[in-house]
Amino acid sequence: MASRSPARTYLVRLVLRPVLLAVPFAFFNGILFGESWKELPAFYLASLVFAFVISLMIEANRAWVLPRLRAAGGAGKRPAHPLEIASFALAAMVGSVIAAAIVHVTIAPGAFGSGRGILLFLVFTVLFTVLFLAVIYWRRTQGLLVQRIREEAETTAREEQEMKMAAAVQKALLPPRTRSGPTYRSAGASIPCRTIGGDFFETFDLPGGRLGFALGDVAGKGPSAAILAGLVQGVFASHVADGDGPAATLTRVNRALCRRIVESRFVTLAYVILAPDGTLGSSSAGHLPAYVVPREGDGQFLEKGGLLAGAFENAGYEEEAIALQPGDTVLLYSDGLADAENASGEQFGDGRLRSLLREAARADSPEGVLDLVLESVRSFVAGHPPADDITLLVVRYDGAGGSTSGAG
Questions:
Q1: CB 267 within 8 A of CB 217
Q2: How many CB atoms neighbour CB 323 within 10 A?
Q3: CA end-to-end span of the chain, whole Å?
Q4: Nearest to 46 by CA among 116, 132, 154, 120
Q5: In a 3-state reduction of DSSP, which class is residue 273?
């Protein structure tokens, strides 16, 4: 928005404003002190002199006195200091005295020489002072309000842009949505409840052709959880290279996090390792157990593990191993799936989730499983804002012979 030119500003303040403000005071004083409406032009002329002189004194105060007061009190936009208010009040009063002297020697000789004249002068002085201060500080308050709204809007826009950039970085840190190899296929997705979140999943290539699949859920939401999730991802990646089993890896990750993690913040982790022959090792750090759904039959949970990571440095972890058959599906997921709520406050729930996972695991591909689960939860919440991040990682073991259909 183009700023008003200085000449136009002074024209408004020293000409237009006094002309308009003198009107109500002319009527007021005409009613209070006049004897007929014929005297109204004289009262308007007197009011105009008061309005013009007081405006002139206020502008002088604004130009020469106010900058010095603000320099002494500190720079920057802020509410008016009492000395600033007092300076305008004094300027208005001095202007009233000067205006009274002008009126006294010009349009109303001797008007202020009697008790009635003095009363008139005091009324003019008080009313004009109050009016001009009200106008000035209404404009100042309006200006500060507009400035604050503009600054808040700019800050919000900047923060939104920064959050979008952070979301792009966080997305880039995740592995590809789908991945496949000679003996497996996988698909994963992480949907934050805010722009960025504290859930993540990872895949790792390990010695001997083995593959590691991890899923984590950091306590909390938003930027702090996202930063911590990035830290955990980095720590995890640095402790899987030697190819130890899930329990040993989680033990080292936990110790590293306890040395570096923020106090009272923690993370739950699920970690499985798939060998080419179908052996699946599993352990968790306070996380929901991995769910294995065979190509035929009921699913089972792999519940061995230990305490959440980042809280107890000496925590120990257990692991278990099972043999997968071609077509078996492994699912790792965060509690955001079960905790998803619809508009009436009803949660998706563990029972409904397990039935959904068992049914979805029969899909032809891990990506089909992923899409079916996410779409079912999305339909259940029906647009209700999510309260927690949602993350799901699906691994299909195809066996040494390659891709095997999971349809049954």
A1: yes
A2: 11
A3: 66
A4: 120
A5: strand
Whole-angstrom Cα distance, residue 262 to residue 186? 32
Strands 184-191 and 329-333: unpaired
* Angstrom distance (rounded) from CA 209 to CA 400: 12
**What's at 267, amino acid-wise?**
V
d(CA 94, CA 275): 93
Which residues lie below 8 Å from residue 225, measured CB to CB, with a gap of 6+?
196, 197, 198, 218, 219
* Alpha-helical regions (H) of 114-199: 115-173
| Residue 128, token pair as written in the block | 């004009």
Residues forming a β-bridge with 269: 216, 286
How many CA atoms lie within 13 Å of 38's alpha carbon, on the beta-carbon side? 2
H or E element that contains 226? helix 222-238
Please state the φ and ψ torsions of residue 364, each to the nearest 5 degrees.
-65, -25
With CA atoms as reference, report the closest residue to 282 among 267, 307, 302.
Answer: 302
Q: Which residues pair with 178 in a beta bridge?
A: 187
Domains of the chain with bracketed CATH? 6-164 (no CATH), 174-397 (3.60.40.10)
The β-bridge partners of 204 are 212
Nearest in space to 266 (alpha carbons), one of 323, 225, 211: 225
pLDDT one digit per residue (tens) for the chain, 408 residues: 455 677 777 777 778 878 887 787 777 766 666 666 677 788 788 888 888 888 888 888 888 888 888 777 654 555 556 777 778 778 878 887 888 788 877 877 766 666 566 666 666 667 766 776 676 667 767 777 788 888 888 887 887 777 777 677 777 778 889 999 999 999 999 988 877 878 999 999 999 899 999 999 998 777 888 888 888 888 898 888 777 899 999 999 999 888 876 666 789 999 999 999 999 999 999 999 999 999 888 889 999 999 999 888 899 999 999 999 999 999 999 999 999 999 898 999 988 998 998 888 888 999 999 999 999 999 998 888 888 889 999 999 998 766 554 433
- Amino acid identity of 203? T
Q: pTM of the entire structure?
A: 0.65
3-class state of residue 371 by DSSP: helix
